[in-house]
């Protein structure tokens, strides 16, 4: 199936590894012109070369205003941004009683405000062209909270409200807004949480962890011409882990 993405201009945040890299690879494979970002400049440049992306841009999304500057740079380098994929690493572990004000503030900046700033910067061009795709990579934690991840659980659930609020405001202008909820996926984040893969697989109906390329395939479809009537949705890619609606 031709997804109609050839020469579309995409910016994928947090894409030097893991889920973001899986999404960027899928978009590149469909012929999109892709810019990626990561905190480490050398790492993101290497990843861009390996993926065949147009450009790798260093950006620390924990810094206020950084996402706005990133999108502005991507627009200059690519000539515009038709597809925006927001994605950041997960905040540190912590039960509610152990989470400090600083941890809440840092999580709010990296998970929430970076997404808002990036969308705010990319949206005017999409509305002017009457075509755009905005994808927010969150987590199944937005629907099925993970014990010990209070910051992630709270803020990622809030991003679903943002999707539901924004999607109807821009639907008539050809811009779709959706959330992707990856489940337990074989990335560095799983290693950071220190949970054996075998233990996780026991709780997943598919009896295995997901692969970044599987999330990438869903992201590429949601960015496609064929998905123009899909908006305001939160779609889990989780092997059946989330049981609720």
Overview of this structure, please?
Helix 1 links the parallel strand 1 (9-12) and strand 2 (33-38). The longest helix has 29 residues, at 101-129. This protein is an alpha/beta fold and 245 residues long. The protein is built from eight helices and seven strands. The model has no long low-confidence stretch (mean pLDDT 93). A seven-stranded parallel beta sheet has the order 3-2-1-4-5-6-7, with helices on both faces.
Class per helix and strand makeup: alpha/beta
Total helical elements: 8
Total number of beta strands: 7
Terminal-residue CA separation: 29 Å
Low-confidence stretches: none
Topology:
Layout: E1 9-12, H1 18-29, E2 33-38, H2 41-51, E3 55-58, H3 66-78, E4 83-86, H4 101-129, E5 132-137, H5 150-170, E6 175-182, H6 188-193, H7 197-201, H8 212-222, E7 234-237
Parallel strand pairs: 1-2, 1-4, 2-3, 4-5, 5-6, 6-7
Give a short summary of the structure:
This protein has 245 residues and is of the alpha/beta class. The chain is 44% helix and 15% strand.
Which features characterize this protein?
alpha/beta, seven-stranded parallel sheet, 7 strands, 44% helix, 245 residues
